[in-house]
Write a structure and sequence with these properties.
Number of domains: 1
Strand content: under 5%
Helix content: 55-70%
Low-confidence stretches: none
Order of helices and strands: HHHH
Radius of gyration: 17 Å
Largest sheet: none
Length: about 100
């Protein structure tokens, strides 16, 4: 039972960036619509994460794996989640809310 509870807690901590992104986007959307928080934020955050993963794994003759900037090493943090949430909420408020 203890191992289950440890894994459950770790799952929340490991995905804190996505939780922050969705919460910020939901909180900043004008009409408090859940679709404004979940859809755009997941697309934006996962796209950003995949782009960083590509940069981390890039190994061409010009960039050896050791020369990839350290900023791409750990991209899943709360700041990135907040940033993606704010961007998604602003875009949602500008283009999807008709009030």
């Amino acid at each position: 039972m203890a191992a289950f509870l440890i894994q459950a807690g770790a799952a929340i901590i490991e995905h804190m960036a996505i939780l922050f992104a969705i919460g910020v986007a939901y909180g900043l959307s004008k009409d408090k619509d859940g679709a404004g928080g979940i859809g755009p934020v997941l697309v934006g955050y996962l796209g950003f994460d995949d782009a960083a993963e590509t940069e981390r794994g890039r190994a061409d003759p010009v960039h050896s794996p050791g020369s990839v900037p350290a900023a791409f090493g750990k991209i899943e943090n709360q700041f990135v989640g907040i940033l993606c949430g704010v961007i998604a909420a602003e875009l949602y408020n500008r283009f999807a809310v008709s009030s």
